[in-house]
Known about the structure:
alpha+beta; 12 strands; 43% helix; 11% strand
Amino acid sequence: MKKIFAAIAAAVLLAACNQPYQNPLESLDYDALNAQALEEYLSPVHPGVPGEVPFWNKFATKYIYAPVFEFEQVDGAANYCLSIPSGGESLFVCNNAPVIALSPIWNELPVGWIEATMQATGADGMAVGSPVALKFEKDNPFHGPYEPAPIGYRESAIKAAKALHDSPLGQSWTGGNKPDTTYFYNCYACKIWSGIAQTECFLAREVPEYHDAALAIARNACDGLIAIAQPEGAPLAFFPPTYYYGENNEISTSVLRFNVGKTMFLEATYAANALLDLYDLTKEEKYLDHALGIAKTYQRLQAEDGSWPVKVMFETGEPVNEARCLPADILMLANRLKVKYGVEGFDDMVAKGEKWMWDNTISGFHFDGQFEDVPIEDKVPYQNLTHCTAGDCVEYLMTKPQQTQKDLDACIEIARWAEDQFTRWHSEIEYEADALSAVDSVFSSPFVFEQYHWRNPVDASIAKVANNFMHIYHKTGDLLALAKAKALVDTLVKIQDPETGMMPTLPNSETKFSQDDIWANCVFYSINILMRMHRIATGE
């Protein structure tokens, strides 16, 4: 009997394998998905619990999902009521505790800015304390389908890589391992030089006629990173600096001036991954060895609680303050070394780092911005949230060797949060509009902005939120997540310069296709996400 069942199973598997691949993007039922989205928007995103889980939305101004607001306890209050004017009357939501969810009335509220008032009352129904005013934006819900990509995802990715390669920025690396100091963003060595190298490695793999030229640029950029890195034995051994001033300090900006002698601790991971990409192509041991040296420095400098600092002094490794970095990129580097290259010895570091990340970041949604071009001092928790650190958590949890249900549940909630706070499915705000605008300055393609303090579309932000949704789709089969990812990735293709293929970092900038506004690391990230959607569409 067992042999019979085994034969039947084998026949079913063979039949499935012989079936042509069905592109899931071509059979999305948008009527059903739009209805599903509206239903899901009634469920608040990671609401706080007074005294247990902090409320992350202290500085939030827009919502797609019904929010939950926390108010201060009022002496003598028996009830707390939030009133919102709507259509000549008021809608009310009340609770006997100073926590109010808008789920009961969310679908009745119009899209746009909403002014609300909370008034506490006593047991007799009389007002207690002063009214509290609230103002927030109810943002447009997902409503597909959106205008599709004009060309294929792989074609778009290759065009973007070729455009960066052929640009003056890319070609400036053909003469050696010194950067073009007339290009402003070369001051961010770890991000920009690594982005150049990784994009060239991609081009060398995917386009045979570019192989030799792309490989030469990748090698020069990586050799440049190694040349400016700290030597073995230094406190930050093998780390290239975040900030590069030029050999004669010819790059001088306000960003560099307030970071003299400092470096962002996390950003050496960019260099390590670029070196590993180049090693994959060349098998030259010096690139693997240097990346391993970076990982061992991270291991050596991990605090007992599993954490690392955000910013340190480049010569001494001493933290500039008490702020701790979100360590997902460090943990992913360690996992890459183990899974792909068989390097052992980082398991304890990863376990301690992951525990710290759960306890200090994920549990309370402390996804605070940690960017190299803004100070990290004088920021209170939740003041400048970003989907970037959140998306890094998703990437780590969904790509580590084994996932748990807890990991998946957290990633689903983080994906909802990144959509809620940073995604625009549709915008009528003029300064957010782009050349893609339809009539009346309406931005007709979805986009994502980077952080609370930079509320403008960014290509890598669009890609990162799309990546969240693709992870959810792959783990759960949720077609709404896939539809959201498709809408965002299609935007990447549409913002691309149709002639040169340049992928703009700032899609609504007047100089969006100028190399002066291109962050190479963002281009590379967008290329990766385009290729991921290509694989979904084709089954490759």
